[in-house]
Amino acid sequence: MTDMSVQNSEYEAGMGDYFALLKPRVMSLVIFTALVGLLVAPVPVHPFIGFVGVLCIAVGAGASGALNMWWDADIDAIMKRTAKRPIPSGRVQPGEALGIGLALSGFAIVLLLLATNVLAAGLLAFTIFFYAVVYSMWLKRATPHNIVIGGAAGAFPPMIGWAVATGSISIESVLMFALIFMWTPPHFWALALFVKSDYGDAGVPMLTETHGRDVTRRHVIVYAVLLVPVAVGLGFTSIGGPIYLVTSLLLNAWFLKGCFDIWRRDDAAADADNYTVERQVFKVSLYYLFGHFGALLAEAVVRASGFGGL
What we know:
Elements: H1 15-20, H2 24-39, H3 47-71, H4 73-76, H5 94-115, H6 118-142, H7 146-150, H8 152-155, H9 157-166, H10 171-194, H11 198-202, H12 207-210, H13 213-233, H14 242-263, H15 267-272, H16 276-305
Helix pairs in contact: 2-3, 2-9, 2-16, 3-5, 3-6, 3-9, 5-6, 6-9, 9-10, 10-13, 10-16, 13-14, 14-16
């Protein structure tokens, strides 16, 4: 929770500082997966409605980011990788971030309800609540399984995109959700392994701090293995196909190899090369997710072109 550890500053915030509150890099992933969820759905959507739907999902994600930064300003000030964020650096006041987060949340939910349907708006509202309250205010500081459960917040966008188009939930949207949900722990733990003591210094019970790095490495490989059937299984649904299946098999082999390399290392080996393997696996995990959703989009384009029936 925000406290006096946040710096005071005479710095006048600019648009870039307020935009940074929205976590634009996270937002880019949200926009892409939500767009794919919308475009691969079996129901065509008017371009304007689709644009409004994705815009609302993006704004909702940004609102979640602002609320998260407001609540976490005290620990952000301690961790090296977050100390330069707008609130701990003093460029934006906590009250401003809270106001922006609440205003954008209301705007996104109401507009999505008016433009699309109750299910899509309800899922967006729940996603914002889950990330800002369940994850940020509770799980993050309460349990080493914070990122496992909290990962659900980042997994909802393609399900919301699907709901914008269809007004329903299906096995396809559930598996898109499950793909991101199962991907999040090994992705984030690879990061936690090479940021070293940041989370411990801030008192965040990340798995690396509560159970040690060896346990974290074992969790990385276990979740990577469990991720494979979810990712590949999506290829056998109505939105999958040969492009997706080949892409998924190649990406899973690449990601599994990296996670296996993490698992068989120890702290001495990791320290010796400055956690090169962990850094590389973190990058690969990003390619992994974008690659899977990009393949789903490619399958949708092929079907729309008429070649899917050849």
